[in-house]
Amino acid sequence: MSQVSDILKFNEKFVENKEYEAYLTSRFPNKKLLIITCMDTRLVELLPKAMNFKNGDVKIIKNAGAVISQPFGSVMRSVMVALYELSAEEVIVVGHYGCGMASLNADHMIQSIKERGISDEVLSTLENSGIKLTKWLRGFDSIQEGVIQTVELIKRHPLLPPGVPVHGMIMDPATGALELVSDGYTSI
């Protein structure tokens, strides 16, 4: 049986047994927080537990490295939606130690892309269209750098409502310990 079949089979029983009732909440975050964090598997359950969040408490955006690289890309659009439409009042960027984005090697990834069947012609077309893959696939030198750059991008965004604190934290993915690296209250 495929993973999708397993998921659908489990889901059928989940709905039938009304297990969803324990998770009912509104679309507005109870704690009025937006969290931007990494998609690392170690954080799926650990991050909410370590930060004392339950279903409905916060909005969470996950991506590789908790990085916002485009000020007018889809992640930043989601930040704006959370702040303007979904009652979020604060933003916390949470990176983590041992992040794969800190060691991401664009050349190695491009080689993997080729090995998985993407032709040199496609890569060349992208490059000729102005998409610099080595820049786009670049990670960061340190987790602190990645978190602080994302915090600063949000804070400098022309559409950020005045007075919104933007914080930066780093989590230990083994223990859940948090370190504050940028206190958003000091800059508002």
From TrEMBL:
Listed InterPro entries: Carbonic_anhydrase, Carbonic_anhydrase_sf
Record's catalysed reaction(s): hydrogencarbonate + H(+) = CO2 + H2O
Record's keyword terms, sorted: Lyase, Metal-binding, Zinc
Name of the top EC class for this enzyme: lyase
UniProt superkingdom: Bacteria
UniProt GO MF annotations: carbonate dehydratase activity
Gene3D superfamilies attached to this UniProt entry: Carbonic anhydrase (3.40.1050.10)
E.C. code: 4.2.1.1
Necessary cofactors: Zn(2+)
Pfam families per UniProt: Pro_CA (PF00484)
Family note: Belongs to the beta-class carbonic anhydrase family.
Protein name, as recorded: carbonic anhydrase
Organism: Paenibacillus forsythiae
Taxonomic lineage from the root: Bacteria, Bacillati, Bacillota, Bacilli, Bacillales
